[in-house]
Fold this protein.
Amino acid sequence: MTTEPAVDRSAITRATLAISCAATLLVLINFTAPMVTVRIIGAELDSGASGQTWILSSISVGLAAFLLVAGSLADGFGRKRVFVTGGVLLGLASAMCAMAPTALVFVLARVVQGGASAALLAAGLGLLGHVFPPGPERARATGLWGAMVGGGITIGPVFSALLNKVADWTLAYWIIAALSLLLAGWAALSLEESRSERARKLDLAGVMTLGGGLSFLVAALTEGRGGWTRPHVLVCLAAALVLLVAFARVERKAADPMLDLGLLKRPAFLAATTGALVTGAAVVGFMTYVPIAVQQVLGLSPLASAVLFGVWAGVSFLVAPQARRLTGRIEARNQIAGGLALCGLGQLALIGIGVQSAWWQLVPGLVLAGAGSGIANASLAGLAVQSVPPNQVAMGSGANNTARYLGSSVGIALVAAVLTMAPGGGGPAGEFASGMTWAAVVSAALSILGAVVVASLRTPARSAKRAAAGSA
């Protein structure tokens, strides 16, 4: 009689947490790397203003288009398998960025990076949901996962600015390529496979309609800054509308839908998804332009602008793990609403920054917005997992992150449009400063409105009683 070797569950749990957090950190470092070097990359690859917008937002195309796809694949075919594939693909795409001879090749490589990042994020959070049961330990794990979002955003711009100073911008992408392949190898050796208990079929129609619809939508939002009535922008908007309507119809009939539309009836799922969308559109979209603004308006170097930007992201990184202390005292949706409200107050504090301002005048607003982002990131990660059934945790994380990165594309396009339409005066620096003031007003309004909406999405008392009775 043979016995199976004992499995060290604690070792698997620790490895899953470490690998998932490392992946999120790496994804966000890569996501934010071009923020302070976009003008350098654009000049070397001969891209215009529109090309620079694509350099900033192209990774969001892949993220928004493939997060739900990755979540569905992870739940149905194996979260470890999808995670490892994402790590390998991110390594290859990062090498393609480093070798890109033109802006078009760089942008296409960033789209592929987005798809690979989607696999790492959706499968990684799904793996956490599998090994950590609901309770304080899961709250701690998702809090650390949320902290990695702030950590990656803190490190990414400084990382790329430093490497550009000692070598050139391509070195950052070679290092990301190497780290991605190392992460894939670590995951392959250490992670335990998990999937939904019921075998799922690939929702090919859902993949094609959602992926195509979101890709056309992000393309329209990015190109729209040059004029919303241009023929190709209108074609992209029309194609996005047709494909997204088709996606909704397909999912209603699919035996194994990529997105279970029944989840939309859950207030907690709606709160998590709405919070993520507003975080991307109102917070990430605006903050993406802060390093560019302080370079152009205050005359800071790329490295100095990255360090100043790190005030916002660094505070977010420090606050997110502490948000677990609110668990059991404040509902997750109220934590998200409070975080968004703090972000709005921080953005309002940035109004009026101009060419005569000192860099330290930005610090109070960045600290407030950073604290709000940390609370929101931690509670969004937890609610994304808690608001769906256990066999759909990767779907829940995919939907949540899809909303976040689709929102960031909307936010980047919105800020670009505000910068274009804002009243000028005082030369290029003065015009940019005026545009950022208007962008701060618009973004703050969206953050506060989002906080109100999320706070209002409460579970009806009767439904809550039924859920409590069922769990008992």
User: Anything to note?
Assistant: The first helix runs from residue 9 to 32. The two ends are 40 Å apart (CA to CA). Residues 1-6, 461-472 have pLDDT under 50 and may be disordered.
